[in-house]
Amino acid sequence: MKIGEIALVASCPIETIRYYEREGLLPPTARSSGNYRIYSPRHLERLSFIRRCRSLDMSLGEIRRLFQLRDAGTPDCAAIDDLVSAHLSHVESRMRELRALKKQLRELLDACTSPGRMAACGVLKGLSTGVAKPGGKVSHLPGTHR
């Protein structure tokens, strides 16, 4: 199957497929006499695997490691469990960070006391100096000095 066909079947942009090839996640393909890439069912299976991993927000490094572990043929899957467990911990950490970000954005919006008047825009003031909390406390945005 040509690249357009595998892209259609896998619901994956052609450039993404080429990127995965450059990254070594997809093995090199055979070429037709017209120099078109020819993809096998093995390529489709690997591409589908990559797409499922990416839908779980796994990094290319994590996916590469999963392939290494799978292709090694080791009967024990403890290393795979460890990788997924570490990824889950990372996701949980990001969720905490996103909840904090949501709270700070809500505080920015709550600082707006005069909607419509640019000179009194609480959002812009909060972004310039820190987010005003109820009671006059200031919470600094992520990436700023605390």
Offer a few descriptive terms.
about 150 residues; two-stranded antiparallel sheet; elongated; two-stranded antiparallel ribbon; mainly alpha; 6 helices
Verbal overview:
By secondary structure, this protein is mainly α. The chain has helices at residues 3-10, 14-22, 41-55, 60-72, 78-110, 122-129, and strands at 30-31, 37-38, 131-132, 138-139. It has 6 helices and 4 strands; from the N terminus they run ααββααααββ. Strands 1-2 form a two-stranded antiparallel ribbon. β1 and β2 (37-38) form a beta hairpin. The longest helix has 33 residues, at 78-110.
Q: Which helices and strands appear, and what pairs or packs with what?
A:
Layout: H1 3-10, H2 14-22, E1 30-31, E2 37-38, H3 41-55, H4 60-72, H5 78-110, H6 122-129, E3 131-132, E4 138-139
Antiparallel strand pairs: 1-2, 3-4
- What is the succession of H and E elements? HHEEHHHHEE
Instruction: Give the N-to-C terminal Cα separation.
Output: 56 Å
- Low-confidence segments: 132-139
Across the major sheet, the strand order is 1-2
Specify the number of helices: 6
How can the largest sheet be summarized?
Answer: 2 strands, antiparallel
Strands, total number: 4
- Rounded to an integer in angstroms, the radius of gyration calculated over CA atoms is 24 Å
- The level of helicity is 55-70%
Q: What is the arithmetic mean of pLDDT?
A: 86
